[in-house]
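FW: tagging you since you asked about this chain on Friday. Here's the raw sequence from the shared folder, copied in full. Didn't touch anything.
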Amino acid sequence: MSTTHGAHVRLNAHVNINFNPSHGHARHAPSPLDVGHAHRAGLGGGAPPSLSGQQGLNAARPFVPSQLRDGFEVASARTGAAGPVGDGDHTSTTGGITASQLKAVMPGLTDAKANAYLPHLNRAMKEAGITTPKRQAMFLAQVGHESGGLKWMEELASGRQYEGWRDLGNMRAGDGVRFKGRGPIQLTGRANYTAAGRDLGLDLVANPKQVATPEVGFRTAAWFWKEKGINAAADRMDLKGATRPINPGLRNMADRAAFYARAKRALGL
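HL: got it, structure written out here
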């Protein structure tokens, strides 16, 4: 998806926004995720690069979670799901996944949250054709990494750092804060909110905060996934291929791989 289409344009591995966990800001929350700032799906690992103008933007960025996380250290998931509970490799699972499967992928997710998120997650996956174990496992892995195991639905930073970023369509004063990263794969920028809202039949420009709700956030994440054609990489079980549209710098692959391993076990792959 291109910026002209209003795609989420996310920061590249060259963004340097020194978000420091000890300062209590940056991304969704100072998580063990990526080294950096995890709020928009797209920045990641290592020392935060430098944010020079808008060069760090990639024309396909829905959020900036991973890339802005570039300064935090990702704690690779240390827990694994217990044995397969899925229904095979190629079987269509249009009925969605179960709460137990979701909890097996997301360490620390409570029963209450799993049950609250599940119908919205399953609806979103169905809308985007994420209806086989391979596709669902990959989607859960990326969403899990970008949201800290579904802990964050909105970046902690104010969004002021995105003021004037034309690549994101932020042309009006206040757009950076108004259209900050939200959702499990952080949707960021006026252009992306406009495009996602248009395609989903929602007015995300007038009411951008709804993207931080599970009802809408999972749909915008799945919208981006479909727009970028990530199901193809999921079908090949190509973790790097599925990561590039989200984080072009392929940051924090170890954490993504840990989520993916749990997701595959949970779905019987």
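FW: Residues 111-127 form the longest helix (17 residues).
HL: agreed, and Confidence is low (pLDDT under 50) at residues 1-92.
FW: great, closing this out.
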